[in-house]
Queue: 3 jobs
Job 1
Amino acid sequence: MSAPGKTEPTQAIARARTGDADAWGELYREYAPAIFRFCRRALPTREDAEDATMDIFAKLMRDNRLLQYDQSRSFTAWLYKVAANHCWDLLRRRKTRQDKETEDFENVPLEHPDPNQLDKLIEQRTSEEVRRALGKLGSRARMALVMRYYSDMSYDEIADALGVRRAFVGVVLLRARHELRNALGQGGALAAGGAS
Amino acid sequence: MTEDANLSGDATQHLDEMTCLLYIERQLDRTRAQEISAHTQDCVACRTLLRALERESRLLTRAMLEEEEALPARLA
């Protein structure tokens, strides 16, 4: 994964690793908007996203975490992983009532959807409605969907960030989709009977 | 929840949603993916479910990407 149309800022990274403040400024100007948007999707409020973006870059600089970056990989993908870890730590520390309610339903079998109803629901919903519904999800569900469908992270990366087994990532994503459908207000109408 | 698809050849015995999701996300091995592809040739319901899940993925990506907020002043 890499930001479309961007080449990796190899020289700026090399300079930033040596503590060059100008190079850090360059990296910040180039990547802070993408990291802010990631945090905006993953965290509940705009203020949370602003704070998180500042904290992520501050920690990167303070601890010179660029030394951990493998330059043969995508820099954008690595930054998204750092941002995902930061956001998830933050969300875990302040568990919301919504998260507790979600946990209560964690072991409830998911009902198999009626394919035609689901297809219809997806066709009728707008991006705006989906964004509003995402805001109503529990932290883990929202985080998983953002990592997969916003920043295109792999199942291995998602497992790593959430601290779950790789084999469990599909389950997390499927539960998140069900939660989203419920938040879209049509959950009850989708079940075809039976659990999967 | 099981990741095993029912692939007895009877198109009325449908794939479970987990298997469909792992299929569209290319998380299944080649043999399993080929079995599912073959099943959905004959099964309209499973084909419809796969299509709905793919559309759901695209809707999610579109919803998250299309509204690009400007960087707040204090971050600029």
Job 2
Amino acid sequence: MTRLPRSAPVPLAATGLALASLAFLVEDVWLVKFSSWLIFGTLALSLAFIWGRGGIFSFGQNAFFGIGAYLYGIAAINLVHSTGETVTAFLIGGLGGALMALILGYFMFYGRLGDVYVAIITLAVTLVLFTVMAGTAGPQYRVGEARLGGYNGMTGIPPIVVGIPFQGDGIRLTPQTMYLFVVVMAVTLFAAVSRLSQQPFGRVVIAVRENELRTELLGYDIRRYKLLAFTFGGAIAGLAGSAFAAWGLFVNPAVFGLRQAALVVIWLLVGGQASLIGPFLGAALVEWISSTLAGGVGGDETPIILGITLVLVVLLLPHGLAGLLRLMWERLTRSTRRAPRVPEGKPGETSPASQKIPSAILTQLLQNARTDAATLEVRGLAKSFGGVQALDDVTLSFPARGIRCLIGPNGAGKSTFFNLLIGRFPPSRGRIYLEGRDITRLHPHRRAQQGIGIKLQVPSLYPGLSVRENVWLASFAVSRNVPDANRRTEEMLGGTGLAHRADELAANLSHGEQQWLEITMVLAAAPRVILLDEPSAGMTREETLRTADIVRGLGEVASVIVVEHDMEFVRHLGAPITMFHQGRIFVEGTLEELRRDQRVLDVYLGRERARRVAVE
Amino acid sequence: MEPDLVVRQAVTVLSTVAVLVIVSVGLAVIFGVMRIINLAHGEFLMLGAYSVLVISRAGAPLWAGLMVAPVAVGLIGLAVERLVIRFLYGRLIATMLATWGLSLVLVQLVVMIFGPATQGVPTPLGSLRVGGYRISEYSLALIGFAIGLLVATYSLFTRTRYGLLARAASQNPLMAQALGVNTGRTNAATFALGAALAGLAGAMLAPVVGVVPSMGQAFIARAFMTVIVGGPAVLTGMGSAAALLGGAESLVSQASTAFLGQAALLLLAVILLRIMPQGLSGSWGRRL
């Protein structure tokens, strides 16, 4: 991530100039068409950002586009006489789109609705807006001088008039200058989106798409990131809507219709989402084809062609036309270039944990990042799911430094205990204190910020991002400072022996390496309390022992709580053990003490019940 | 309030709830059981209504339409599942986009065949006198239909071998396959069932709403909202959500306009989901 290719400003400027120069080479009829393609491309760009980058599928881009268009119309009609310009109205349209997205997004993302629900709610809102605007036919539906016009739409919208507010009449744009205005808008928004993708904000948005849970457990407020991304997408769509109304001098409820909503998705699917050029190519291609073949949108067969296109693209081209072209290009060039992505050799051999990593380095790294250790205490913690008492009256305290092992048979409540500590769900009763502060009701990301880090049982990474990007996201979560995060990322990569695989996608790592990467990420976030859920699962014996060494090192600077089934690993840690059984603390002591305890053996061997029956 | 007015109001509210249940049952089956977002649900409903239109134009009574519509639309659903949906299982957005494309095609085909104008099917049955008011017997019939549909679908999924297999195939397809369930066939049957229920819904509503190619759009948002607000218990939760949302819609539209009623439904749904993201039945611990 720190070495990602920057969005190149020179080609972008050159493309912008080339597009602009068309204004002086091509007839007005074509410029009007080009303008609309760029406007639609900008609309598709907004979807490319929130869906392609943020992973949020929204039908609502049309709603924001339409709101932008109507607001431009209303503002321009009312303001143009007094201010002498409509650029303010243009911006109001964008603001309206952003505001609508903000309100809608608040309910959806702070309600933590799933992707499906977001798609459906945005669809419902778009359809309702269609009904609302179609029902505003009467003369009573007017805002100032602007009549909404119901199904037939709002007419008499002024074009873009460029000027300084209240300084006399500005310049009314002609088709030629309007085209230039649209080019400037599209290029600016394109640059903004691609620049944002390079910024920490954009990186975290992509992280949310890749793995929400991990992002939250690193300390990012995913609700906020989703909301901001959604609002930004709404602003882009709103501005495109403004431009659309100024381009057509007219707007009707069809902008909220299903056909228009389908078009946006088709543009994007055809163009592909991988690059931000895709939406523009898709919009231009689809609009050009439909204007030459089907006589433009409005022809009888258009919805049928659109519908069939949508079905076929989904069935046959899951990555869009651009994806197909890229695949063909890769096929063509594969014979000449040889670039094995997955390295040869057995996974165990390349695993960094098997290399000699001095645990002292890790301990040092952790100590550098955070000097304040913290105690963790739980009192009377209980959790029931329906009728099942998963955890019952657990009181435990963990010192600021040191290791504690939690063991117990499956279903003993260990995972529930961890989930309560990190805040994935609230306890039914009881309190949790971090360094004396009550954190029982804090959101997971707030707890992560306070210094609780967890390695989950199943590796939870960003499979589609590189190892370096994975570690960077963890580092940035603490420092919130790019140079610091960059430095820490390289330190962690060097310290944990992952440096030679830094540019590999996390998905391409072996299982043991993924475990290791997750531990590295947890440490990069410099936690004060480290929760490890079966850290040695999937590791070879040698890796297991080395991991145990490292965990012992971590115990010198932080509070480490380890859930583990591997008794060899537990023995190697030499730490006090708490055994859970049926949601309660069953016994505490050293491994030796537990081994001598007949009751412990009974639980593990399932003899308890048999014996009770025998006694009776 | 006069007792006769109370009765009339109650019937109005209940029949709004009933309409919501009727249009949502098929969706609850396809979305709730199969986790597929079928955006062509509204168009399946519309096709059901057109089936009744064709049948009643031919001079047959309404009940004949009620028999034919689910069969016809169920067969269309089966074809859609075999030709498109089965390639897209597990790809949520993809199924959504494909069914969306399908809905655009279906609407336009119906426009080309039957024209874009609204057409009517005569309302059967007469009306009852309650005090100073008249109550349409068909709206009482709709309430009966809604209850019948819920009970029948619930029984189908809990009491029959097919119901068990269908739930197994959607909850854990690999395990179901390992146990010898032909999940491909079960899924096809469930999708066809959902389509048939949508067709039946369209047939039941044809006499009380205008039959028009775009009628699906009028219902789809409300149906989805009802199913989502219902939550994981797809049938009982959906029924409760219909009662709540339909009640709100009906009361608001009586006090103001039909449009504000729909807006109230949407607003209430969004607020409910903000408070209970898992839906009404989120903590009920049941799946039907």
Job 3
Amino acid sequence: MSNSGSDAVYVEKLEKRFGRFAAVDKISFSVDRGEVFGLLGPNGAGKSTTIRMLCGIISPTSGYGRVAGYDIFSEAEAIKRSIGYMSQRFSLYEDMTPLENIRFYLGVYEVPQEVWRERIEWVLDMARLQDVRHRITRELPPGWRQRLALGCALLHRPEILFLDEPTSGVDPITRRSFWEFIDKLAQEGVTVFVTTHYMDEARNCQRLVMLNEGKIAAMGSPSEIISEVFPGRPGADLGDVFIRLMARRQE
Amino acid sequence: MNPVTIKAIARKEFYHLVRDFRSMYLAFVIPLLMILMFGYALSLDVDSVKVVIVDHDKTKESRELAQKLNASAYFQIVRQLNDSLVAVRYLDQGLTTMAIVIPPGWTEDLKADREASLQVLLDGSDPNFAGISRGYITAFVEAYNRDQLLSFLNRKGMDEIKAPVDGRIRVWFNEDLESQNFIVPGIIAIIIMIVGAMLTSLVIAREYENGTMETIRSLPVGGGELLLGKAIPYFLIALTDVLVAVFMGQVLFGVVMKSSFCLLVLASTIYISVALSLGFLISIATKSQLVANQMAILITFLPSLLLSNFVFPIGNMPKIFQMLTYIIPATYFIDILNGLYLRGLGLSHLGQSYLILVGMLIVLSYAGFALLRKEGM
């Protein structure tokens, strides 16, 4: 349990079983503060289960873990207050307007009333939704909804932002501007923890954990992982690594 | 339990409600329709019995009998017929509920002090109606006999005699025996179940179906805060519906409450909360709006309608159903409302029913809370 207090995320032998099936099989890793950290893997690898355990949505079967300095078994409430979470479904109420969604998040995160106005303007500017603040969210294009969902997850200024496949169903241009925004957040000191199965997104991460069938297949920076799996093959990229590692496991 | 969080959830729930056509329909249109339909259509009173009369005797006396019948507020002669078989056909086709046959020689028998029989055929397919009709015609025949007796005594120059027993009946509660007086309390109980339990049964299932339950779990929101916040808008709507029902009952049907208005609001508050807890429990257990709605109809709406002493008296039910009525919240609420509305009773008589409802509220809300916790909230 070395220096677990200063890491943004620290887990050791974290396990989640559904009956006899181990969705996450005793994994250990840590995430530095201010880092953009990626959890990469095919569908069913255990990415979502891991991120949901870290966010206090489901409780682990066994192991140890701290997020933002709080224990994931006993301090889920405190964790929820210090993190932002956005899932692939964009976590919005689609029958409400952007403004109403924002107010809902401000309320449940107990953001002090005196900063509401300022935060609302900040999110609407950031998500470029000023003109549609009174439109019903369902009618907005997916990319706009995604920006709104991201803004809602940041309203209470969390230390760590968890993104579960944040760009699925969004076009490449929107995805690019999304990642530019993530980089900006990281520069401001926010830790970003993201799951994905897109290689180009994984490249944006400073460090990666590759997950397959609940186990860690590789860990490190993108270039470290490439040279570890393909030593002496400079042309190889993350996609090759992914295919190689996932194929090896399935034999 | 943070009031800011609860308020944010209540506000969100309110938006869902006003933007969902079906919910608005259930919340406001159905209650209004029910008041009007039950109040006007489901009148259990029998105003006038339709009669066809077959007069084989054709005398002054037999015609007088028919006139007397028609003059009474309880009967309405729809047709004079000559053939008993045709009268039977009228009954078969439902054109009349009663056929009266005056046999030939009836007046002669009457004058000769022989038994003069009058045949009365009654449609028994609606037992309630037939029972009341039988009561009316029996009373009518008795009154006719009495008149005959009096005129006989008069003719003989004798004094009036008094009947040995004179039953003086006074109806204690609900003096006019207006069924609307007990229908209005019943409607209030049903409306609360519809608005309270059927609407809220959709509420948590909707979060599961839309995937937003995941969002809520990722937020610092406790199970108690979630349930309380969601309950507030539905509670207010149900209470509004109750007040509208009370008001309409008074204006349209002249049903005036005898006891304290505060006691009515108190009882409604408790009963609405019971309905909400039941709806939440169903919603958490089923996680599907369709299944939840079916369940809500089956375990809240129907029992409240059928097993609550509203339409069908509990005393007439088989033992096993009588036992079942004890676990139906509406039974106690209707007991309270009848007490308040018709009997003008206070808390000293109705306290037990209040307490039972409070007990149900504690059990149901705890069950919902525990189930939500088990689901990881």
